[in-house]
Amino acid sequence: MTQLISWLSILIRCKNNIQEQITPLLKTLNQPQPNHGIGAGGDPIKQIDLAAENAIIHTIKKHKISFTLVSEESGVKEYGETPQEHYVTADPIDGTTNLMRGIPFYATSIAISTKPTLNTIHTALVADLTHGIIYTSQKGKGTYRNNQKITPSKTTSLEEAVIGIDLNTYKIQKIAPHLTDLIQKTKHIRHLGANALELCYVADGTTDAFIDIRGKLRTTDMAAAWLMIKEADANITTPEGKPLNVKLDPKQKVAFIATANQKIHKTILSLIKPEKETE
Ligand SMILES: [Mg+2]
Fold first, then answer.
1. pTM
2. Residue 154 Cα to ligand 1 middle (Å)
3. 221 with 271, same domain?
4. Among 121, 149, 177, which residue terminates a domain?
5. Burial letters 115-133, b for 16+ CB under 10 A, else e
6. Ligand 1 centroid – CA 41 distance (Å)
7. Is residue 236 part of a domain?
8. Is the dihedral of CA 56, 57, 62, 65 positive or negative?
9. Full domain range(s) for residue 259
10. What is the pLDDT of residues 75-87, one digit of tens each?
11. How far does residue 96's CA lie from ligand 1's centre (Å)?
12. Dist. CA 135 → ligand 1 center (Å)
């Protein structure tokens, strides 16, 4: 029955429902926020994260589909009689800090898979919630930005490249030695604060690479964007250059290098020193 479900249209409905639910909450952000405890991913849960997650659950339930939700907020939850049929891996709001501060760069990220593994994802959506941009992807069918097929950049020179690096970690002293050679040779470094969207920027050629070697990013944050990268024919590997193959679980952490093309991938891999050389 799986093939009869139009996951793409359901994901777009999820995104529309999220936007409807969070719009009134955006006006209350300067008021004291209720305490909802710590989410499955380890961050404090905000009311707006919960509203977005509920919007996803309600939308999928409306279609009478059994599924297992793998979410940054509630963890793993089963719905319906045959929840192992579909896995819905979601970061309802990626970039909540940006949202709370009024920085217009945050997204919804949802990936559908047949098993709780990255490489069984077949349909995904990442929606930039402030700019009206939706990235969608289906296995074997490419990646689209607002219905236009996208391709990554052909930039190979670090002089010209715009490279995103997530440096948000208390263990910066441990990871900095791996990155200094790359940072020194790169003219334009960015970090915008919503990793799912930053990966989509690599897929559509807005930037040329996005690097997160902290080992603390959750798979819920990058599952949907992983398919965007793969289907746009961009690259994503471990920092050692191996294929990423991880479980979809709120506690599963991931480190990766995502790039626009093979040439810049090789250049970046050669500049990021393997762990053992600096220890
Ligand atoms: Mg989140």
1. 0.93
2. 31
3. yes
4. 149
5. ebbbeebbbbbbbbbbeee
6. 9
7. yes
8. positive
9. 162-278
10. 999 999 999 999 9
11. 6
12. 17
